[in-house]
Amino acid sequence: MIEIKNLTKRFDDLLIWQDVNLKIEDGDILAIIGRSGCGKSVLLKHINALMKPDSGEVFINGKDIHAIDYVGQRKLRQKFGVLFQGSALFDSINTFENVAFPLRYFSDFSEEEIHQKVMRSLEFVNLQESASKETSELSGGMRKRVGLARAIILEPEYLMYDEPTSGLDPETASEINDLIITMSEELEITSIVITHDMHSVLKVADKVAFINDQKLSWHGTLEEMRKSEQKDLINFITASEYQIKTP
Amino acid sequence: MYALKEIGKYSTLLYQALRSSTEVSTYRKNLFQELVKVGYDSVPIIMLVGVFTGSVMTLQSAYQLESAFIPLSTIGAIVSESILIELAAVISGLVLAGKVGARVATELGNMRVSEQIDALESMGFNSVSFLVVPRVLAGILMFPVLYIVASIFGLGGGLAAGFFSGSVPPDDFLKGARMYFYPWNVVFGFVKSFVFGFIITTVACYKGYFATGGAEGVGNCTTEATVLGCIYILLADFILAVLLL
Asked: What is the ipTM of this complex?
């Protein structure tokens, strides 16, 4: 379980958000939504301690990740898989090696075992035939899927997706959404999805957190979100639906 | 205030790199790759720089010292001393600030803005140990080797230029070079190249590691790494001359 308590972040004088409190139960698919620039990705980077908060705590399975030393943080980070917005694939190595990369450093598997695990992971995202391709040869959607294959290779407890469908065509975005659900169901991974794509939220999430006005202004289940009367949240959802309906 | 902040960040990165240098298994593979990229791949340009520096030095010295009263061996002495004490290290350093410094800053800057460094950290890697330590080590290990290459080809170029232009016979050139050869000059050159290797790679790593923005940010960090690398080399050259000569 992940528990965020009274988290506050500023960049110099600019307040990003303050007193964020959020609980992410095991097995949840939580979507964190909000306008561009509201600090969704920044919040994500606080969960695995890629950024330091000004104040507050983030408990991962009961351990405050910001209160432990760097070595401890690195160990705790291995419980997370992260799919970055631009996939963050290493462009100096090919697809297979990108997925194999964490295994080569953090496991004692033989070359044959690594091969099997990588191919299984690539099969999971339907990319086993692209194993030998250079990352520059991959499309945006394929890159996201390779990023996902790499994120799950160490069998993490938590998967964090930073704008998983941004920049993708609707069909590919739908495939990624299906993968998020599959990951959660088949691998029993707790997922945190950062997005402003309401299509994606309605399809994959079972809980939603809404960041607005420099705070976590609303959170609850998908059903509760549909019934919510909070003005800002309704405006955000309505604006998204309007965009969807407008040709 | 800005300068103090930058110095603080640079010092922190160096401290992290020093602390991370014990994690040999993290950077061993990268270190070998960097030794090749910094050292082996730079040999042709350093040979070229050495040959032309030595040649021009000989021809200009012969032109300036054209007198019946000055023995030709003096030219060999001037050229060899200048190359060993100053030119082999400084000119190589300036060239490598462009070649090595720009490459390192671009690589790391690109990794930073495309979140590859965040990806490394999120997997549990120590990104400083993985990316910065091998590049700095390659710099301080290979620059002295490249200094030797530059010196040998500089002296060889000077000798050849004197011979082919007819201005200094090889015997006279070598006689002068031997007469004024002091081992301390070579030690001094080694110290310089070691310091320059450290400066170029640490400045480039710092600029690349903390790059911000997109393509423009990477361009800016590369330019800053190259320009600052050159300025700090000249500054360090002066300080070392004051301290060690």
From this structure: 0.90
- Identify from A12, A50, A161 which residue to disrupt to test chain B contact, counting B C-beta atoms within 10 A and taking the largest count: A50
Beta bridge partners of A212: A215
Check: CB of residue B76 under 8 Å from CB of residue B175. yes
Rounded CA-CA distance B154/B162 in Å is 12
Contacts across the A-B interface (CB distance below 8 Å): 45
Contacts of A77 in chain B (CB under 8 A): 121-124
B116 touches chain A (CB under 8 A): yes
What is the mean pLDDT of the segment spanning A221-235?
90
Q: Which two tokens stand for residue A14?
A: 């600019």
- Give the closest of B118, B121, B124 to A75, CB-based: B124
Q: Which residue of A has its CA nearest to B123?
A: A78
Q: Edge-to-edge strand order for the sheet containing A55-60?
A: A14-24, A2-11, A55-60, A63-64
- CATH topology (fold) of A1-79+158-247: Rossmann fold (3.40.50)
> What local confidence, expressed as pLDDT, does residue A241 receive?
64
Best to test chain B binding among A82, A143, A159, A160 (most B CBs inside 10 Å)? A82
Residues of chain A found within 8 Å of residue B123, distances taken between Cβ atoms:
77-78, 101-102, 106, 154
Contact B123 A90 (CB under 8 A): no
pLDDT at A247 over 50: no
Question: Which secondary structure element, helix H or strand E, spans residue A124, and what is its range?
Answer: helix A111-124
Higher pLDDT, A240 or A155: A155
Domain(s) of CATH 3.40.50.300: residues in chain A = 1-79+158-247
* Closest to A91 measured CA to CA, from A124, A145, A130, A137: A137
Q: Which residues of B47-63 are buried (b: 16+ CB within 10 A; e: fewer)?
A: bebbbebbbebbbebbe
Place of tokens 């996201």: A144
For helices B170-179 and B133-165, angle between their N-to-C axes, nearest 10 degrees: 130
Tokens of A156: 């993490």
H or E segment and range at residue A152: helix A140-152
Q: B11 touching A, CB under 8 A?
A: no
pLDDT-derived band at B20, boundaries 50, 70, 90: very high
Q: Measured between alpha carbons, how far apart are the two ends of chain A, in Å? A: 41
Nearest-angstrom CA–CA distance, A191 and A204: 10
Asked whether residue B149 carries a pLDDT value surpassing 90, the answer given is yes
Please state the pTM of the whole predicted model. 0.89
- Looking at A130-244, which runs of residues are DSSP E strands? 158-162, 190-194, 207-212, 215-221
Is the separation of the CB atoms in A232 and A213 below 8 Å? yes
